[in-house]
Amino acid sequence: MKRGLTLMATAVLVAGCGNSGQPTGSQQSQKPAKVTLEWWHLSTAEPLKSLWAQRAKDFEAAHPNVTIKATVLENDAYKAKLTTITQSGKVPDVFVTWGGGVLKQQIDAGLVKDVSGDVAPVLDTFTPAALSAYQFDGKTYGLPTDIGLVGFWYNKQLFAKAGISAPPATWAEFLDDVKKLKASGVTSIALAGKEKWPGHYYWAYLAMRIAGLPALKQAGTDHDFTKPDFVAAGQQVKALADLQPFQKGFLGAGYGTPDGQAATISNGKAAIELMGQWAPAVQKDAGKGLGADLGFFPFPSVEGGKGSTGDAFGGGNGLSVGADAPPEAVEFVKFMTRMDQHTKAVEAGGVLPVLKGEESAVKDANLKQVATLLAGASGYQLYLDQAYPPAVGQQVNDSVAELIAGTKTAEQVGQDISEVAKSE
């Protein structure tokens, strides 16, 4: 036994010596290879624009061998570019995802890394609702950086001018308030008609309130959006559009542009917008900002509807990793979602909590209201243009835009979406 140990020790000693005095291959390999990570995201507004840039620098400082090359695009440009690259069989090393059907399609195409094993030690630090959009069949394909819900952001001063003392609790009251705002000489609603996705929020929420969450999930399976409750949702969108509540030129308006939806609200030129939890940040970035005059209320109930007023519609952003990305990509995602890093974004008002125990970091009163509604939500529906396969989601956006523009009926909307869903 001793002889064997002696021979082994001698072999190790010989292997560790070299006449040249140069490091051996094993010693050379200890120095990490240079890595460039391609990171795509869509946080073009403050505070996230600067916060995410700083996080990348912080990661590079802790990992000298890593260079992060960020591509930052606004929503529609991001979707278009990501769709193009996925169709060519590629994805960036790290990229923002909303989860749901779009991510599932990318997973099925073999483009996204299963990070279940890598993130197992930190999974229980996230809230289940935040994680749900990135998990399929017991496996994890991304980590959340934000979660929230869509609701109405409004100008308290313009409401008071119109004689509206409290936000509406029902859809009928909402339509009445739209009329009161118009009568007071105020543009009732700002809408980015050109980008289409903001308009789909109205149809989706009305479908939730009238048909109920199970009906929306069922439609994802049976591909039938022609049922009476879906038609009724379209009819209510038409009833709203018939009041001509939107700003002049809304069909050509963007969302975050200087003359777009967010700026129209931010500069006091319209009273209401239906938008996600990021609305205050984009408003500040695009216009003057409303300050204390900005208020929030949830989407109201619909009389006789099957859906619960407590059901929330929305989603959040997450980070997924390309199937062929280097290990440093997973480490970057874990770094971005670590409590000491992520809470800084919550405190700045850029995102809502996705980690257990972050709730106290929410400072803004309106965002606290959103966080409270989320915490007590009776159900949760992901954006339809993300919950369903990409082609179906795009058809929802297109069809609702046509409905709002008056070129399609509520019945035709259901037929068109069903036709695309059945072909997928």
What is this entry, summarized?
The chain is an alpha/beta fold and about 425 residues long. The chain is about 45% helix and about 10% strand. α10 crosses α11 (about 215-220) and α10 (about 195-210) packs across α12.
Task: Using brief descriptors, characterize the structure shown.
424 residues, alpha/beta, five-stranded mixed beta sheet, three-stranded mixed beta sheet, 13 strands
Write up this protein:
With 424 residues, this protein is α/β, with parallel strands linked by helices. It has 20 helices and 13 strands. The protein has helices spanning 2-15, 25-28, 48-62, 75-87, 100-108, 116-119, 128-131, 156-161, 171-183, 197-211, 213-222, 228-242, 261-266, 279-286, 327-336, 339-347, 365-375, 384-387, 390-405, 410-423, and strands at 35-41, 66-72, 94-97, 135-136, 139-140, 143-144, 148-149, 151-155, 272-275, 294-297, 311-315, 318-321, 379-382. It has a 5-stranded mixed beta sheet. It has a 3-stranded mixed beta sheet with strand order 7-11-13, sandwiched between helices. A hairpin with a 2-residue loop joins strand 4 and strand 5 (139-140). Helix 10 (197-211) packs across helix 12 (228-242) and helix 10 crosses helix 19 (390-405).
Low-confidence stretches: 1-27
Output the structural class.
alpha/beta
Count of individual beta strands: 13
Major β-sheet annotation: 5 strands, mixed
Tally of individual helices: 20
**Could you report the average pLDDT, rounded to the nearest whole number?**
92
Q: Numbering strands along the chain, what is their spatial order in the largest sheet?
A: 2-1-3-12-6
Principal-axes shape call: globular
Strand content: 5-15%
What is the CA-atom radius of gyration, in angstroms? 25 Å
Helix content: 40-55%
Distance between the termini: 68 Å
